[in-house]
Amino acid sequence: MHVSLATSAGRAGRPNEDFVGAVPGAVVLLDGAGIPGAESLCFHGVAWYTHRLGGALLGHLSRGDGRELAAILATAIGEVAAEHGGTCDIADPSSPQATVAMVRVHQGRLDWLLLADSFLVLDQGDAGPLVVTDEREVTARRDCAAPLAGIAQGTAEYDRVRASCVTALRARRNQPGGYWIAKDDPRAAREAVTGSRSIAGLNGVALLSNGASRIVSPYGRTDWPGVLDVLRARGPASLIARVRQAEEQADARAAGGTDAQAPDDATVAYCTHLRTSAHRVSMIR
User: Fold this and answer.
1) Which residues lie below 8 Å from residue 39, measured CB to CB, with a gap of 6+?
2) Closest Cα partner for 209 from 239, 165, 169, 254?
3) Which of 46, 114, 186, 243 lies at a CB distance of 3.0 to 4.6 Å from 74, suitable for a disulfide?
4) Nearest-5° angle of CA 131, CA 136, CA 142?
5) What tens digit of pLDDT does each residue of 4-34 get?
6) What is the DSSP pairing of strand 266-272 with strand 119-123?
7) pLDDT digits (tens, 9 = 90+) for 180-228
């Protein structure tokens, strides 16, 4: 398997809270949740958490034993929780956490796992891309934000209702009926979106953090077939560059009164030659 990786911090002077890495036959991509105030709960920080968890996942995947991905994730979450549970308030809903995307080629099959809102895109050639994601966080966020409808931004009422919406969303983390994310509880791994299929007919597979997927939504600069076209022709770094261009233009429109999203860390992994036993990785930061 050949793997191309690229990652970019959303803002200069701030750590990149994404993580991406590969071992022969497997790739891991994490998107850390940078929640304001988390420093008072865990002095290590979100970037520390994503790198510790990502490293633990790669260590287990390097064994190549075919163990279920959800079981590997549960073990890794438990290991990292034990590392800092004695010094940090890891049970607080706002303590460091991360989305998880994993793929593995094993015995002629592609196995995958997604937890929270990263994206997996399977390149099926003429059959078109198959896009896999975990939509539960998006659904929970939309439901919790519903009380804001019709309230003018910049008002005291808006700020008050928004604060209650944020509290309601945090209360849904790793709870039945809410959404699931890697944090302190290994049981969250059981709730991951998982799948497996033969690598026959697959030209490749891409993993994108939420920040990279913005090129499709909300920016609408391309669609998922277009994402694969860019990755085939120019690779992950080019796709992230297009995300940054879209962010800059959105900022310009915001100056004219249109809302814009803050730049986000963006990370992409693109895997090809799935049938090849040789493993090659190229990384661009």
Assistant:
1) 45
2) 239
3) 186
4) 110
5) 999 999 988 889 999 999 999 999 999 998 6
6) unpaired
7) 999 999 999 999 999 999 999 999 999 999 999 999 999 999 999 999 9
- What lies within 8 Å, CB to CB, of 187 at 6+ separation is 74, 174
Q: Please report the beta strands in the chain, taking only residues with DSSP state E, as ranges in sequence order.
A: 2-8, 18-23, 26-32, 98-106, 109-115, 119-123, 130-133, 193-198, 204-208, 266-272, 280-284
Block residue for tokens 């994310």:
181
| Cα separation, 50 vs 86, whole angstroms | 18
Q: Is the dihedral of CA 88, 94, 96, 97 positive or negative?
A: positive
Tell me the domain boundaries of the chain: 2-134+181-284, 135-179
pLDDT digits (tens, 9 = 90+) for 60-109: 999 999 999 999 999 999 999 999 999 999 998 889 999 999 999 999 99
Superfamily of domain covering 2-134+181-284:
PPM-type phosphatase domain (3.60.40.10)
Q: Are 115 and 190 in contact (CB under 8 A)?
A: no
* Beta pairing partners, 264: none
